[in-house]
Amino acid sequence: MVADGSLNKVSPLMPKGYVNVVEASQAGYSGSGLIQTDTNNVAPRIGIAWRPFDEKTVIRAGFGVYYDIVPTVVTTAGTPFVVNEPSQTNPTTNPVVLPQVFPTSVAALTTVSLPGAFKKDLRIPYSLQYNFTIERQFGKTGVRLSYVGTGTRQGEIQTNINQPVASTVPFTQKPRLFQSYPNITYTTNGGGHQYNGFTTEVKRRFTSGLLYDFSWTWARDIGDLERDQAPEDTYNLARERAAWEDIPTHRVTGDLIYELPFGRGKKLFSQGRLANLAFGGWQVMVASTWGTGFFLTPQWSGPDPTNTRYTTGSVPTSTLRPNILHNPNLPSDQRSVNNWFALTAFGPPSPGAFGTSAKGTIEGPGSFTVDSGVAKNFSFSERERLRLRVEFAATNILNHPNWGNPGLTISSLASAGVISSTGSGGGGLDASGARSCRLGVRMEW
């Protein structure tokens, strides 16, 4: 479909018997535009803070609507105005052949690329974000309990609207929406997520030589498809809904800085320059993270059992989710880098059907890191206008291996369930690598 008045600009090479080209008004569209503009994106937001009892207790809540700031741009293609002829390769027997600038006939086209399809009233995705928090101060320490929710609506997905229904009938014998055409990628609305998270935080600002901040997040994100992702089965989007891969169930973080009580102004060794030089200004720092693994999706590769993948001849190879037979997650004492999950839990898809496994059925390896350091501050004046800081720090000081994710293609027996890398535990949230140390010197004035 082209804008009104542009049929005369269509390339003469466009095969009319294969793809019919009509003006917009002939198909019931406005002649000036094919896509309806989305102009009703109103995004209200509200926040409330309330001290119901005293100055040490605060209740906060908020709600807002947030639209995507980078909406999808409807792409334009050269077709049907630009359709290229096949290139010519000079023969080896007579490699010097002058081109014929004005050929007497048009060469046959080998392929015609169809542009992607878009929903005519494509909406801009938005999310509903809401939270509720209670904060309480106990002496020098603050405690925060929070709930955070995010619901994505009108998410953009891409489906193959020319996909036939799964069955044992060969692809070439199945009816399709557009029988003459191969796959047609259609961008539409319909994706979504629902995130719910509960966070507990205990925090103390740097007071009397001590600072700490500890938090625990318990969360789950249930979603189906992200932008530019396509479902395995166009006619069953519900089977794509599952726990989202990169949101771990539990995540604990903590950091602490402790200034040893030695030297000038402290309880011990506070008298004398030599005592302060030797014992004063020492700090110990620790930061740690721990998290459960990501939700991983098994894969199976082989001749297409669904007969839904485009082909003009023999059965193509496809990669799909397999059948699931039982829980693939092994007890923690049975897991190893060579056998992370039970391969017996999966089997190839049944003939004429998609696999029964959902996404995210395998829990990947978690992560645990501890970073630590020691620092010594040298002050050259009472007001500390000139200070030298020497710091020794180590990342992953315990040299704990954070495993990468295991092989997920069950048809590849040599790698399925096998972990072959380190340094990206938890799917990459805490990619600490091997233990490393550094020494730094800093002058402050």
Detailed description of the structure:
This protein is mainly beta and about 450 residues long. It has one helix at about 275-280, and strands spanning about 45-50, 55-65, 115-120, 125-140, 140-160, 185-205, 210-225, 240-245, 250-260, 280-290, 295, 300-305, 315-320, 325, 345, 360-365, 365-380, 385-395, 435-445. The chain has three domains: about 1-35, no CATH class; about 45-75 and about 110-245, no CATH class; about 250-445, no CATH class. Helix content is about 0%, strand content about 35%. The strands form four sheets. Strands 1, 2, 3, 4, 5, 6, 7, 8, 9, 10, 17, 18 and 19 form a 13-stranded mixed beta sheet that branches. It has a two-stranded antiparallel ribbon with strand order 11-16. The mean pLDDT is about 85.
| Main beta-sheet strand count, sense and barrel state | 13 strands, mixed
Intertermini distance: 70 Å
Overall SS class: mainly beta
What value does the Rg take, in angstroms?
31 Å
Average of pLDDT: 86
Measured as a percent range, the helix fraction is: under 10%
In total, how many beta strands?
Answer: 19
How are helices and strands ordered from N to C?
A: EEEEEEEEEHEEEEEEEEEE
**Would you identify the regions where 5 or more consecutive residues have pLDDT less than 50?**
none
The helix count comes to: 1
Shape: elongated
Q: Note the beta-strand portion.
A: 35-45%
Q: Tell me the number of structural domains.
A: 3
